[in-house]
Amino acid sequence: HRLAAIVGYGYFRLGVAGLPTEATAKVAIVQSSIDVIFALPTDEEREAHFLQYRDLTRSARQTWPDLDLVLWPESGFPSPDLISDSDEERSVEYFAAAIKSVWHEVTGFPVDFPEPVPMLVGCTTHDPAKQEMFNSALLISNAGQVQFRYFKNHRVMIGEYTPLADWFPVLQGLSPVGRGLTAGTEFGTFEIKGVRFAPTICFETTIPHLIRRQVNTLAEKGQEPDVLVNLTNDGWFFGTSCLDLHLACNVFRAVEMRKTNLVSANTGFSGQIDSIA
């Protein structure tokens, strides 16, 4: 009887699962495979990493010429983002131009492909005025300009920040991340062809209440997302069960929120998960 009740309830819930919006968008998910270590990569390694992302992106454009959006994993974009000027050599305009240049080379527009395509990429955003650095997701528009930013809200302890380091600076010298990253405080969405996307970064999708708060907060603002997007660099956990865990958590978040969940991962598992798993 219990089994029948569970199956019956599940069948009922499938009938009322969140339906996708009538609008549609064609999205390419770039899956990279790059080893991650704490030591800074050499120039040769940086170039190899970039070429892997670039070639995969161009291959996707050749296969699907009518793409509406390209997703890159967390920290995959090579050019940093700047949101305040520190001096003449580190101007916002200079870094914006660098981002646009990389976008042109990656997407092949207009030399190799006649139409531009926006990208959601993992990046590092710097705010020199406040001496802050964020783990961010940037939407680069059809014009090659940063149109939207999401700063990771939930940082990974030790990996992205050192506990109590703001009060005891001596701790910064004991950790490879030093002072670490600043946590974001807001959620946001962006629209592509009438479809509203809400990004998260890395292991944020392992925290059920964070994603529920994200969706509920955005819904209260009249910005309820149609699609969840997770940009992640799971290269830190290659060879461990964390890769399987993260995928399983992304499945649960899709079902709990009744939303399609797109995952773009380095080394981990990328994919599209619908609202019924």
From TrEMBL:
<keyword id="KW-1003">Cell membrane</keyword>
<keyword id="KW-0472">Membrane</keyword>
<feature type="domain" description="CN hydrolase">
    <location>
        <begin position="25"/>
        <end position="277"/>
    </location>
</feature>
<dbReference type="InterPro" id="IPR036526">
    <property type="entry name" value="C-N_Hydrolase_sf"/>
</dbReference>
<keyword id="KW-0812">Transmembrane</keyword>
<dbReference type="Pfam" id="PF00795">
    <property type="entry name" value="CN_hydrolase"/>
</dbReference>
<dbReference type="GO" id="GO:0005886">
    <property type="term" value="C:plasma membrane"/>
</dbReference>
<keyword id="KW-0808">Transferase</keyword>
<protein>
    <recommendedName>
        <fullName>CN hydrolase domain-containing protein</fullName>
    </recommendedName>
</protein>
<keyword id="KW-1133">Transmembrane helix</keyword>
<dbReference type="InterPro" id="IPR003010">
    <property type="entry name" value="C-N_Hydrolase"/>
</dbReference>
<keyword id="KW-0012">Acyltransferase</keyword>
<dbReference type="GO" id="GO:0016410">
    <property type="term" value="F:N-acyltransferase activity"/>
</dbReference>
<dbReference type="InterPro" id="IPR004563">
    <property type="entry name" value="Apolipo_AcylTrfase"/>
</dbReference>
<dbReference type="GO" id="GO:0042158">
    <property type="term" value="P:lipoprotein biosynthetic process"/>
</dbReference>
